[in-house]
Amino acid sequence: MKFFVTIVAMCFSLLVVAQKCNSKLGGTIDDFHDGSKIVGASLYIESLNTYAVTNLDGDFQFINLCDGIYNITVSHIACDTKFLQIEVKGNTTFNINLEHHVEELEEIRVKGSAVKTQANTSQETVLKSNDLEAFSSGSLGDALKQVSGVSSLNTGNTIVKPVINGLHSSRIIVMINGVRLQDQDWGIEHAPNIDINSAESISIIKGSGALAFGGDAIGGVVIMNPQRIFLKDSLFGKTITSAQTNGRGYSLSSKLTKTYTKGWYISGQGTLKRYGDFEAPDYSLTNTGLDSKSFSINAGYQTFEQGFNVFYSFLNNEIGILRSSHIGNIGDLVTAINNQQPQVVDGFSYDINSPRQDVTHQVFKVEFYKRFKKFGRLDIQYDFQNNQRLEYDLRVGDDRNKPALDLTLKTHSIKTNLKLDSNIGNTYEIGLSANYQNNFANPNTGVRRLIPDYDKYDFGIYAISDFKINDKLRIDFGVRYDLNRYDAKKFYQTSRWQEQGYDIDFNNFVIEDLGTQLLTNPKFDYHNFSASAGTTYDINEHHALLFNYSLSNRAPNPSELFSDGLHHSAARIELGDLRINQETSNRFAFSYLFSSKKMRFNFEAFYNHVNDFIYVEPTGTQQTIRGAFPVWSYKQTNASLVGLDVSVDYVISNHWSFRNRSSLLKGYDLDLNRPLIDMPSNNTMNSLKYNNEQWLNFNAELQSELVFRQNEFPDNNFEAFIPTTNQTVLVDISTPPPTYHLLHFNSDVTFGLSDQADLNVGISIQNLLNVSYRNYLNRLRYFADDLGRNIMLQLKINY
Amino acid sequence: MKNIKSIFVLTLVSLFFISCSNDDDVNPVPVNEEEVITTLIATLNATNGTPITMEFRDLDGDGPDAPVITVSSALLANTTYNGSLNLLNETTDPAESIREEIEEEANDHQFFFSNSSDLVTFAYGDEDGNDNPIGLLFSLTTTTVGNDTMTITLRHEPNKEAEGVSGGDITNAGGETDIAVTFPFTIE
Questions:
Q1: Cα–Cα distance between B137 and B84 in angstroms, integer?
Q2: Based on the number of CB atoms within 10 Å of its own CB, is A418 exposed (0-12), middle (13-18) or buried (19 or more)?
Q3: Does the model's ipTM exceed the 0.90 cut?
């Protein structure tokens, strides 16, 4: 078609050659954002090999043109080159808008990086594709641990939840390609359903300052960004494959992107991972395999003025859970703790048996944006997510292959954002969002529902402003209001309903009495107000400061409200509480950044005061036919978290560099005057790296990871009578494991295959010395050691 | 002005989306737990004297109500009782027998018996397909007069081949506990 048009145009131009050629083409070039005149832009007519340049008023003129259609190239430093077809008929005036890349340029200057940041005055760290590729075979939670102050809460080694400054689960928002992930993040053993390979870069924002994403991110926001699209005809891709000794498995991930100058693009990506039983230094961790499959398609049209994006992603994870972690009662737990060795150790196998999880997550999104001249940009987005979670327990008889938990969570969201950026110095954003969420708990499991059927409605509205006072000082403010409404239908055991006193406080919720069970219809509305204010100040080219304050409210999640049942992996009965209200966080943050040619030093401090902090702790024991169980109830208290995160990058010489990431954190329960449970312990990572570009860009890095014992923990130990052995024993569920130190090594070289393709071959060894250790934040620490040595070979091809 | 109009229209479209929510008022169906064991009944028969039943009943399963434990009468001294266990799920109507499931998967289950004073001894009265004990049938022999307890433990997937396990010693059995119940009784 284009060819045809060109031919026609050429014929047309030939035709007009005979005509008189004294027409003029003139006009003005303006900046798209603020309408300011663009000086010194060049215009080029290829067919005539003629140039024109705009003067101080942004005006240009070509003279002595023949009437006809011309292809004109408009270019200016810091602008996207623009291709135009202009018809000249007599004296013609044509005005042109150029997109001035002021924003992007400024980011490069301020951050020393081409990666665009998400929030202006928040403590934000960006992990780029290089940092992420090393974790291609792992999980999001593992990759994020590169950032100081980010740790993880594990169930074994394949279920890894990120913890930002001590907070996790519903207190962290995970964004994937502009969609807020809704995947039952309330559960401690529910890891984010994300393939790390689908992201090109990841931003980690500590605290709740990024209000556009939500007002309830008391811990922080994790933003996974897809590949940035550039307007040129190009086809490129990347394949990463790895094989490793621990788990005897492989991972394969591939991505292919096609872009066009006109703005169209399509990108496809897929990942397969398969592992068998992992190994601790001294034994096999029976039933810890993983089978993961995922793919995503991202397509659309993108120009400066408008565009749209369609995105679909599918992920299925089948995850084995350590066989020995499934226990019957307190007696079994005591035996497991005292044995220091898993009860069941079988030979290596790829089989994934019960207990296991089978989770499928799908995301569909359409997004549209348009920029308006001298005004701003409007985004509208709709997304749908479907999360299905099946959990299989050890069961007998006909139920053996029936899931014990079968939840389907569907979420529809729509949001709009309007950014007013006609004045580059002061920008304003306002936005609306609305969600409808439905949870369906399949009753065919034959197990009482852990999480009930519910409908949830959310509505949010926010306004954010950003002021550049001068080159050095920048201030931003934001406010947000959210309404969260729950409409649940839940069966309570009549005995539980009465024991909790709900028959007095919530009798109006009962809609049906089935004798031993009551059907209830709890309805709750939560009004949440959040705000944020911050400033950055660049003292000079080396020193910069950041202050940020954020207020946020988080409504309780379904687990905190409605939990009601036995957790086999923890041998405990967990009880939510309908009386729980939202928690309120006031977070103060301060950062100091020093950067010079040789050194980059970043010091981040925060104080987070959380009123009505929701937590779960033992409140008594309960006798059942299986013996005694501790009851863990959700409660609220006032808490404070205070911490320091330090990162240092130092270039020692041409080839040698040093890196340090350290964090300190204290979490305190202010009402009970004791430490908070499950706080990450202090840790420090140091690495020494050698790089030589002459030797095929050879890299070798030795890393030392030191994780201290958590000395501050609440003592939740209790005594229990074990009828089988006729003894009363102390159940030590609190004492954290000792300090451990691990060494890791990695090395890689890059071969050029052609102008556009290269091959990177890397080897990495984790836990080089095969140290036996346990981590305080691994829920399976009672049952088995963490992973032993793992040797991984990775091939990366960019083409 | 045109911009503002477009924005207005787009906002209206979004509001339209927001307002379509489905309002199905169908109530969920209750779940009757299938493999809950609410009741354990041990029946003891001797050639002389009346049969004795020991019952453990916890109708709300993992609910807050405490279990009810009853022992019908005292045992006679120097007597051998033939014991039999029955396990029920009484949350369903009619009650479901869990005993049958255990018989079907006998290789994966074993009961263990223990007492606090040494006034009684236990012996297994049945075998699974591998000639290992199950414990649904057992015998209890009393010695002298006094007070004692009987603790019955059911282990799922125990290692029946481990040392002492087939003799009734739980120490090396492993597996996970499905039942752990204690009955106090008197010997007259």
A1: 5
A2: buried
A3: no
Q: How does pLDDT run across B44-69, given as a tens digit for each residue?
A: 998 887 899 999 999 888 788 889 99
Residue at A520 is within a domain:
yes
Q: Do A443 and B62 touch (CB under 8 A)?
A: no
Pick from B31, B103, B110 the residue to mutate for testing the A interface (most A CBs within 10 Å).
B31
Residues A432-473 have pLDDT tens digits of: 999 999 999 999 988 888 899 999 999 999 999 999 888 889
| CA proximity to B153, closest of B116, B103, B112 | B112
- Contact in structure between A193 and A315 (CB atoms under 8 Å): yes
Radius of gyration of chain A from its Cα atoms, rounded to whole angstroms: 30
* Cα torsion through A207, A208, A211, A216, rounded to 10: 150
Separation CA A778–CA A771 (nearest Å): 16
Cis amide linkage into residue A680, ω under 30° from 0: no
CB A458 within 8 A of CB A482: yes
Give the residue from A42, A65, A100 where a domain finishes.
Answer: A100
Please state the domain extents for chain B. Answer: 36-187
The range of the structural domain enclosing residue A372 comes to 222-798
Tokens representing residue A170 in the block: 């519903």
CATH value at residue A82: 2.60.40.1120
Collapsing DSSP states into helix, strand and coil, what is residue A8? helix
Q: Is residue A169 part of a domain?
A: no
Using CA atoms, how far apart are residues A662 and B51, in angstroms rounded to an integer? 70
A704 and A571 in one domain?
Answer: yes
Inside any domain, residue A324: yes
- Beta-sheet pairing, A220-225 with A234-244: unpaired
pTM of the model: 0.85
- Indicate the residue among A100, A128, A150 that finishes a domain: A100
Position A21: which residue type?
C
Please state the domain count of chain A.
Answer: 2
Pick A332's closest partner by Cβ from B32, B63, B176. B176
A347 CB-contact burial (10 Å; exposed 0-12 / middle 13-18 / buried 19+): exposed
Q: Does A571 touch chain B (CB under 8 A)?
A: no
Tell me if A491 is assigned to some domain.
Answer: yes
Residue A343 in contact with partner chain B when CB distance is under 8 A: yes
Best of B113, B120, B176 to disrupt the A interface (most A CBs within 10 Å) is B176
